[in-house]
């Protein structure tokens, strides 16, 4: 049986801890702080502010500065990734640590990816007796892809080791890049516990599915649920704090829930081409697709709670071609189908309304 969970989001706002980790490594290697923060919009005092957040685009600029200042050393991504501990992630890390099993922790972690510092996209899929975690980087600027991939992949075994209490026994690790020098191969082999395969068609880590059912040493389901609820509130709050052009697009999408406009229509209303709109959103670390997902997720919950519409009616109002596509999207947003979400939230399922005209999305 094959089961997959995909999380397309990557351009979410993130905590300042990720900038703090990277500037610490850069300064340790001799880079001046002002050089690392150049054109990022991050002031030195922001690094110590526990409530400060940055856009993905700001983090990408910081990465560019770091690479340029240090001469793009081959080991930099892995070295930085190993610095991200469970405590770096705050509530997200505590929620993982408190989960009943490794599988619960990984599923929660993927659902709440907006509480991490990942810039890559991930999918987790069970194939037979193995779990495949695939990493995607095609959406990232080419000049930072290698660093980001190395960093985000190094985060994985580091966090998993803290959660499980011991290293995860990987069956295989695939990397798209050519084989590096012997020293770098040795570092990667030590990190993953297995020598990677280089020149692969995709970035992928494989481990036995039996590990998913292993009980975690600090499991506390009640604490895990509390942390997950708090993480979800933070995710929703971050999604609502859009600024600039992204905020205007999000507000426009929310304005007419019965008829959600496409990118061309919104661009025309803002007196620009869709290409210009896309460029503005990219500069702010956002995408039209990501904003549309945020809005649809928000509206779906509101329509369930207040309008008591059927899933088919909600799907139509949100612009989905059929109810199956909506259900798949809802599972991606909330980690469960809408029927289960209704049950957990105590929402009475609706049986629809007769002789009632439908709004076309």
Characteristic terms for this protein:
disordered C terminus, 9% strand, single chain, Arc Repressor Mutant, subunit A, H-NOX domain, two-stranded antiparallel sheet, alpha+beta, 361 residues
Structure description:
The chain has 361 residues and is α+β, with helices and mostly antiparallel strands. Helices cover 51% and strands 9% of the residues. The chain folds into 2 domains: 3-213, H-NOX domain (Alpha-Beta Complex); 242-345, Homeodomain-like (Arc Repressor Mutant, subunit A, Orthogonal Bundle), CATH 1.10.10.60. The strands form 2 sheets. A 5-stranded antiparallel sheet has the order 1-4-5-7-6, covered by helices on one side. It has a two-stranded antiparallel sheet with strand order 2-3.
Care to give the gist of this entry?
One of its GO terms (cellular component) is cytosol. The protein is α+β, with helices and mostly antiparallel strands and 361 residues long. Helices cover 51% and strands 9% of the residues.
